[in-house]
Amino acid sequence: MTKIKPEEMLTNAFSNDHKALIGFVTAGDPSFEKSVSEILTLAQAGTDIIEIGIPFSDPVADGPVIQAADLRAFAAGMTTERVFDLVAAVRQKSQVPLALLVYLNNVFKYGYERFFKRCEELQIGGLIIPDLPAEERPEVLPFAQKYGCALIPLVAPTSGQRIPKVVAGASGFVYAVSSMGVTGTRQQIQTNLKQMIAEIRQATDLPIAVGFGIHTPAQAAEIATVADGVIVGSAIVKLIAENDSAVSAKLDDYVQQLKTAIN
Amino acid sequence: MLTKKNIVTKNKPGRFGEFGGQYIPETLMHEVTKLAAAYEHYRQDPKFQAELKDLLDNYANRPSLLYHAKKMSADLGGAQIYFKREDLNHTGSHKINNVLGQVLLAKKMGKTRVIAETGAGQHGVATATVAALMGMECEIFMGEVDTKRQALNVYRMELLGAKVHSITTGTGTLKDAVNAAMQEWSRRTADTHYVIGSVMGPAPFPAMVADFQSVISQEIKQQLLAETGKLPDAVVACVGGGSNAMGAFYHFISEPTVRLIGCEAAGKGVNTKQHAATVERGSTGIFHGMKSLFLQNDDGQIDQVYSISAGLDYPGIGPQHADLAATKRAEYVGITDDEAVSAFEYIAREEGIIAAIESCHAVAYVRKLAPTMRPDQIIVCNLSGRGDKDVAAIARYRGKKIYD
C-alpha cells in the first residue's frame, strides 16, 4: 500500500454519496487536555475533518466568539509548539483528517520549511490561512507542496471573476465563505450560494465546503443540497465555552444532529 | 557611499524590497484590486490632480509654512532649524493631505460611505471633516483607551457628523482600531471605502498614502531652495505608521546628501516592555495586510505596545520605512515619553508653538542633533500636528489636575 499524502486525507473525506462535516475548535480552549478530548469527541462522533485553530493575538478574520476562544487558549499557555504537541496527542489516538486554521504571521515566524515539515510528521492535511490570498500564495506554496500539505483556498462572495485564479493548482478542498465579514453565527445567509458553488465547480474538481455563519442543523441541511461539505466553527466553540463538565455529551449530540441533517 | 543610482531601487508592484504586499482576506481582495486600478487611473488624471490641488490649497490651507526657528536655533547653538508647519493645516495636522486624496478618490469610485481608524484622533477628525464636506456617511473606529485620552477629539468627530465606535478588544488602542476597521470593511465594501490613515496596510495603500503626503517634501524643497538656495542636511519626523515622515522624506529619498531621520516612540524606555520602537526592537512579520517590521514575540503574536502619544502607539511601521531602514537610507531613533514631554514644553516656551506630542518626538531629537551640527547646516523638522489635544494629558503627566 502506498502511503497517501496528508492533503489527500482531506479530499478523501468527501464522497459523492456522503456530505462531509467539518468542525472547528481553537487549540488549547479552554486547556490543552480539554482541547485534546474535545477533538477526540468530535472525531468519534463522526466529524469528517477537524479544523484546529492556532490562537492569534489579532484574528482579523474572526468574530467575537473565536476571538474569545483565542484569549482562553493564550491564558492556558498556548504557543505554536504547544499546538503541535496537542496535535501529536490527538494523533496517538485518532487518524481523523486534520487541517489548521492559522494566520500567516504564525507560520512565517515558525519558518515555512519547519512549519510544513511538522505538518507532514503529524499528518496535517492542510492549512487554512485567512490572510494569504492567491496573490501572495507563491511565497508559501513550494513548502506546502514539498510536504504534501494543502493550502485550502478561500472563495468569498466577492470573488466573482477571481475564482479561477483563487482555486488554480489548489489541493484538499475549497472553502467557500458564505458571507461577507468575519466568522460567527448568522441568522440568515444572504449570498446566492448555488450560483457561487456552480462558478467554483466550473474552475475546479475539488470538493467544496461552505463555512461562516452556519449553526443550525436546518441551515446545514440546506447548504448540503448544493455543497459537498459544511463547516461549523463558532457554534462549536460557543458550545465548548458554555458547557464544562457536560461538554462531551453536548458535542456528541450536536455532531449527530448536523450529520443527520446533511446526509 | 549612497548615490542617486543605488538608492532608487526597482521594486515589484506593491513591494518595497521584501516589504509590502497584500496579505488580506479574499473577501477584501476584489475591492483592494479595484482600488488599485482606480488609483492608478486617477493618479495620472490631470483633472483629478487639479481638483485635489484646489482642495489642498483652498480648503486645507496649503502650502503650509516653512518656518525658520531662529530663537531655538540660537538657543541650541548649532544647525539652523526649520519647522514645516503641518500643524497649521485645516484640522490641525498632516492627516488632511491624505484624507482629501482618498475621499476624493472614493467619491470618484462611487462610494457613499467612508470608515477610518484613529489613534490620537487627528486622522479621525480629518476623515470626519472631509466626509462632511463631500457629503459622505462616516464611521470612525477608535480604541477605548484613546477615546479617553483624546476625549475632545471624539466629540469633535461627532460634531462633524461621524459615528465613533469605541473598541474594547486587545489594548484598546490604534492596533485594535485598525483590526475593527478592517473587519467592518470586510463586512461592507460595495458602498464603503476604508480611508487608511498611514503608509501601511495592503498595497496600494502604502504607496498611495505616501503620494498624497509627498506634498510635504515637495513644498519643503521649493520653500527651502527659495529661501536658502540649499537642500536640508537632515529631515526629522516622528514615526508611528509613518505617514508624516514618508511625506517629509519622499522627495529627498533620491538626494543622498540629505539625512532622513524617523523618531519612534521609546515610551518608558526600549529596555522596558512599554514602548513602540518598531525599527529598533521589532522583527519582520506579516500583519495588517503587509510584510513589514513589527513588535512581536517568537511565535508571531503581536505585542501590546505603549507610548504616551496615541498616534505613535502602534506595533508596526509602513513597509517603505522598513525598506528605508533595511537599506540604511533612513535612520530611526527612539525618543522616550520624558524626552517628548520635555520637548513639548521647550518648543512652547522657546518658539510659542504648542505642537502635538507625536511631533514633539521629532523636536526632542532635533534638540540632540542640532548642537552637533554647524550653523551653516540645516535641519527641517516636520511639525505634523498641533498640540491643543494634548494639553490636558501633559498637565496630568506633570501632576496637575486638569480635565478636558
TrEMBL record, chain A:
Keywords: Amino-acid biosynthesis, Aromatic amino acid biosynthesis, Lyase, Tryptophan biosynthesis. The active site is at residues 51, 62. SUPFAM superfamilies: Ribulose-phoshate binding barrel. PROSITE patterns: TRP_SYNTHASE_ALPHA. Its EC number is 4.2.1.20. Signal peptide: none annotated. It comes from the Bacteria. One of its GO terms (molecular function) is tryptophan synthase activity. Tetramer of two alpha and two beta chains. Belongs to the TrpA family. PANTHER family: TRYPTOPHAN SYNTHASE ALPHA CHAIN, CHLOROPLASTIC (PTHR43406:SF1), TRYPTOPHAN SYNTHASE, ALPHA CHAIN (PTHR43406). NCBIfam families: trpA. This is Tryptophan synthase alpha chain.
From TrEMBL, chain B:
The modification N6-(pyridoxal phosphate)lysine is found at residue 95. Pathway: Amino-acid biosynthesis; L-tryptophan biosynthesis; L-tryptophan from chorismate: step 5/5. Its EC number is 4.2.1.20. It catalyses: (1S,2R)-1-C-(indol-3-yl)glycerol 3-phosphate + L-serine = D-glyceraldehyde 3-phosphate + L-tryptophan + H2O. SUPFAM superfamilies: Tryptophan synthase beta subunit-like PLP-dependent enzymes. Keywords: Amino-acid biosynthesis, Aromatic amino acid biosynthesis, Lyase, Pyridoxal phosphate, Tryptophan biosynthesis. InterPro entries: Trp_synth_b_CS, Trp_synth_beta, Trp_synth_beta/beta-like, TrpB-like_PALP, TrpB-like_PALP_sf. It holds the Pfam family PALP. Residues 61-385 form the Tryptophan synthase beta chain-like PALP domain. GO terms for cellular component: cytoplasm. One of its GO terms (molecular function) is tryptophan synthase activity. Its cofactor is pyridoxal 5'-phosphate. CDD domains: Trp-synth_B. The beta subunit is responsible for the synthesis of L-tryptophan from indole and L-serine. Belongs to the TrpB family. Tetramer of two alpha and two beta chains. This is Tryptophan synthase beta chain. It comes from Liquorilactobacillus ghanensis DSM 18630.
